[in-house]
Structures are given as structure tokens and as C-alpha cells.
Amino acid sequence: MGEAPAFCFDNLQNGFSFKSKGFETSADVGDKTFVIGGANSDSTSYIGVQIYDKTTCKWVIPTVLGTKPKPCKGHSTILLNEDRIMIIIKGSTPDDCIWFLEVDTKYVREQKKVLGTEVVAWSKGMRGDAEKPVVISGPSGVGKGTLINMLMKEFPSMFGFSVSHTTRAPRGNENNGVHYHFTDRSVMEKDIKDGKFLEFASVHGNLYGTSIEAVEAVADSGKRCILDIDVQGARSVRASSLEAIFIFICPPSMRQLEERLRARGTETEEQILKRLRNAEAEIEQGKSSGIFDHILYNDNLVECYENLKELLGLDGSAATNHKPYPDPKGIDLPLNHTVSKIDNKILINCGTPELETTSKNLIALDVLGLKGGAPGRTRGLNVYSIDSFSDGLNEKLS
Ligand SMILES: Nc1ncnc2c1ncn2[C@@H]1O[C@H](COP(=O)(O)OP(=O)(O)OP(=O)(O)O)[C@@H](O)[C@H]1O
Ligand SMILES: Nc1nc2c(ncn2[C@@H]2O[C@H](COP(=O)(O)O)[C@@H](O)[C@H]2O)c(=O)[nH]1
């Protein structure tokens, strides 16, 4: 028989739990109690998670996926539904205070099968609707990197590049951490096994992959993420919960593709031939697999770039008018807030009980329109202040 839970079960009411010991909170989902913030070995660097299985009376330490929230002065926990728990971090910055611990989403169930362990996955909540990430695929040498560089140069505050990992050797002009994270195969294989990658594929004889962290780092910077990945990777992202726009870039002809690859001068003859052989299948899949929302032909570079901008909804004025997302104005939670759930709203009382009836002490999070989730951010949180003298939500904060 396992040890008795360290927290007080009496405190669990309708799935809502109060802090009961140190910074621990808990939520019941089915036969399991998820204890958040307990004394994990790693809990000095992030908020730990332990599971108490009531059928076996045993504690289980799950594999924890996703970027984890850092230890904090305290937090509240509220069960959103049977698949995810919302964590509200006290005293943190407005854009870092809402997190979701997924305990039984499709992604978590898939990862349980792959890893053969209990799995939970963190996903940070983001207010409003961020622009969808952009996945750009196409055969080697078609001009993906060139087009992406043009976008990043023209719209530096709007786009951020997802820096992939690869086992291939760096080219002369490539910097570690900028163009790629260059890594050993054994390290990358272990990280893949540990669930750190959104997608990965063997491409032209090397391993390439997008870490969850790479995509989240861009989201955290408030920019729209661009991924330059092959068709296999695009297929995996399409199957994940990351909602993105998928664009396939086609060469005008195989002859011109070969000319571009040779003119770039970065591959050996053998590598060029391998990339050209793979290109035929990639183009076939790009056009017919149904993965891609848009196909662009990169014949004339300037025209292709204009077409790319058009389908991303960018016109000439966007470069100057763009305001980085998200708007930093938002909720600032005091240490002594309390949380409750009514229908699809989470109510946070930021005042003392005596002040409860005054205006602006209550914040409502509307969780009806949540989108995305692990392995990525949970978007679509709407945050309002509530004037309790009026009938409802009166000021949208984001
Ligand atoms: N429309 C174009 N016309 C002529 N040359 C082009 C055009 N677009 C790109 N190029 C050139 O083709 C070469 C390959 O482009 P780029 O490196 O951007 O390809 P890529 O798709 O990113 O390749 P990889 O997948 O191997 O990284 C570069 O030298 C680039 O300057
Ligand atoms: N599935 C993934 N494919 C990736 C990733 N990063 C890059 N790539 C693709 O690899 C080829 C070759 O790239 P190169 O830099 O060696 O020329 C190209 O098609 C890229 O799109 C990734 O993270 N995942």
C-alpha cells in the first residue's frame, strides 16, 4: 500500500482544491489525484507533478512533457474538465500566470502509448488568438530559406524562426542556435524518446526535428512562428494539436532546382544527387497529400515572395503597423487571490473578502474558446474584469 497523500483530501470540493501543504495543490480526475507543486526531485527548477492512484493506492511520478512553469510563491488549481487542469500562478507576470496541465488529452494518450509511462503535459495559456504558425516545406534548394529570410527581414517584429535540431554538420555560414541546434544523434534520439520534440524525421540521411521548446520560445517572444521543415515533418505537425498554415514551395522545374542546389555550393556531388532524388517524391507528396493549404511556385523570387505575403495577409503597410502579440496589458494576480468555476468561466477574486463587492476585484477567464494545447500553447483565453455592480463582463482586458 502506498503512502497516504500528503495533502488533505477534505479540501477537495467539486474538483477544486485549495493549497493545503506548502505549495501543493491537487485535482481529482477519475481514479487519480494529481498533486501539483509537491516535493519532486526536480521541483526546485519547476513545479513538480505527482499522481496518486486511488485504485492501487500508489504514488506515480509521471513523465512530464512541455515547458514547465517555474516554482512560484504559490498557485491555485482548478479542474477544467476531465482532460485538463488549469493552474493559476500567484504573483507572476500577466503573461505567465495561466497554465494548463493536460492529463488525458489526445496528445497525452498518444504519448502514454509511445513512452509506456504515465504522462502529463504542460501547456501555457495565451490570451486571445495569436496568428497561426506558418509551416513552410518544399524540396531542398527550392528557396524556402531565402523566402523566410526575406519575411524575417521585412517583418522583424512579426515573425520568429523555429530553430530546429539536426545531426548534420554545420555549413560554413551557419551558427549553432541560430540556423540550427547542431547536435549528436545519440543526444537527439534520447530527447526524442523523452518527448521533447513536436516532430522529427530522417531527411537526406540526417535527423532533423522541431523541439517543443523551439516553437514555444517564438510564441513567448510574441511573434508568429515560422517552421522550415520537410514533408514528413509537416505531416506530423498537421496531426498534432498545433494549428498552423501549411505552405508548400514548388520549383519551376527539376532542372532549375538542380541549378539552384549546385549554385548554392553547400553540398557535395553525392549529397546533391541524393537531395534531387528525394525531391521528386517530396514534390509529388507536396502536391497530392492534402497536407498543404497552399502551393506556391518559386520561379521568379520577387513574385513568389509577394504571393507568400499575400496569403499571409501582409500588405505594404503591415511592416510599420504591426503591434507585437500579445498586448502586454493584462491580469496581475496578487498573492491572496481565490479561484472558482462557474459554467465556462473561471472567476479570480483578487481582493480581500471585504472588498469583494467593489469594482475590478474580480477577473473572469472565459475558457469556452480554448484552442491548441500541448505540445504547444493553449490559446483563446479571454480575460475580463468584472464590475460586480453591473450584470456581467464589462471590460475585456486582452
Ligand atoms: N526564385 C529563385 N530564383 C533563383 N534562385 C533562387 C530562387 N530562390 C532561391 N534561389 C537560390 O537558390 C538557392 C537555394 O535556396 P535556399 O537555400 O533558400 O533553398 P532551401 O529550400 O532553403 O533549401 P534547403 O531545404 O536545402 O535548406 C540559394 O542559392 C538561393 O539564393
Ligand atoms: N522534419 C524536419 N525537417 C527539417 C527540419 N529542419 C529542417 N528540415 C528540412 O530538412 C531539409 C534539409 O535542410 P538543410 O538545412 O540540411 O538543407 C529541408 O527540407 C528542411 O526543410 C526539422 O526540424 N524537421
UniProtKB/TrEMBL annotation:
Keyword Ubl conjugation appears in the UniProt entry: no
Keyword Kinase listed: yes
A Pfam cross-reference name: Guanylate_kin
Keyword entries, A-Z: ATP-binding, Kinase, Nucleotide-binding, Transferase
Enzyme class: transferase
InterPro entries tied to this protein: Gal_Oxase/kelch_b-propeller, GK/Ca_channel_bsu, Guanylate_kin-like_dom, Guanylate_kinase, Guanylate_kinase_CS, Kelch-typ_b-propeller, P-loop_NTPase
EC code: 2.7.4.8
Residue ranges constituting the Guanylate kinase-like domain according to the UniProt record: 131-313
Family as reported in the entry's similarity comment: Belongs to the guanylate kinase family.
Protein name, as recorded: guanylate kinase
Organism encoding this protein: Hibiscus sabdariffa (roselle)
